[in-house]
Amino acid sequence: MSYPPEYTPSSAEPRLNRPVPERYPQIRATSGYADPRVRRTGPGPGAGTEQEPERSAMLTARVAVAITVVIGQLWALTVATNAWMAGSTATAWWCTGFSAASFLVVLAAWRIGPRDR
Amino acid sequence: MSGPTPEERALVDRISADSLTTRRDYLRIVATVSGGLAVGSTLVSAGVLHRHGDGTAAPLKVADRLAPGEAVTFDYPGEDDRAMAIRLADGSLVGWSTVCTHLACGVLWRDNHAEQDGLYCPCHEGVFNARTGEVTSGPPPRPLPKVLVVEDEQGAVWAIGTARSGESEEAGLCRGLRERDPALAERAGCGRRS
Question: Closest approach of chain B CAs to the CA of A73, in angstroms?
């Protein structure tokens, strides 16, 4: 038998000739750079910047929407107070309904997309 | 006592440089404020605030005589409802709640001013027309609630009812009558809604 031995693309041991996913189940097709479990790139190009800039812009937009809605609620509260003091109880309740619906909008803006940073 | 070490100073600098309130924190704060406003609006609509100058009470004699240009203050219909009866220069008699519709300060009668500027709230310079109760200038959002005053044969002045801001005297009287005696209100021609 000469040295080095002649190369053959397989092993004499059958269990080592199984496909790669069977032999190494922890290695996925995307193992390495594009491993989905890797959430941060670490130091390197882009390090320290937003990982998902479009999510960040959405969060800013949600804050803006919520503040705008709260300004509307402040206006509704003044209208409700004025209406109630003038005796228009029905108008006051309509304003309260508007305020409650606005609160639901703000609640949705808060709770939707918890991964946004 | 020694000052902070360079490491402590660097830590303080690092902490103050960080944005401690994130946008998610702002969202949580804004949501809390929003819920508070919704609860506040519910309380207002449910009647937690006192409606000044509103309600019913037995007729109250407020003055034996009132000369033109004179005014008399009294509490009607409740003891917290400050009110005023005024004899205008032409002899007509008017009555108003003197709780300002802006922030509930006391409204004053100015007999040295024109009738349209006769009632004045010194807190924020609100001015009301002494004959109509309408806002002439300043921040008040509503006219003054009315106190219905009448004069008997002897010239005595009586407060007999109230009318809310912008409400007619008849509507106010009917509303008061409905609250006290619905059957009598029906017989007097006061429908469910006037």
Answer: 7
- Is residue B111 assigned to a domain? yes
Query: Which residues in chain B are contacts of A92 at CB distance < 8 A?
Result: 41, 44-45
A107-111: list long-range contacts, CB under 8 Å, 24+ apart.
Answer: A107/B31, A107/B34, A107/B35, A109/A62, A109/A63, A109/A65, A109/A66, A109/A69, A109/B27, A109/B31, A110/A62, A110/A66, A110/B27, A110/B28, A110/B30, A110/B31
Residue B101 shares a structural domain with residue B174: yes
Instruction: Specify the number of domains making up chain A.
Output: 1
Confirm whether A70 is domain-assigned. yes
Reported ipTM:
0.78
- pLDDT tens track for B45-88: 999 998 988 888 888 999 999 999 899 999 998 888 999 999 99
Number of domain units in chain B: 2
Q: How far is A47 from chain B (nearest CA, A)?
A: 17
Contact A96 B44 (CB under 8 A): yes
Question: What domain range is A101 assigned to?
Answer: 52-117
Domain with B11 in it: 6-46
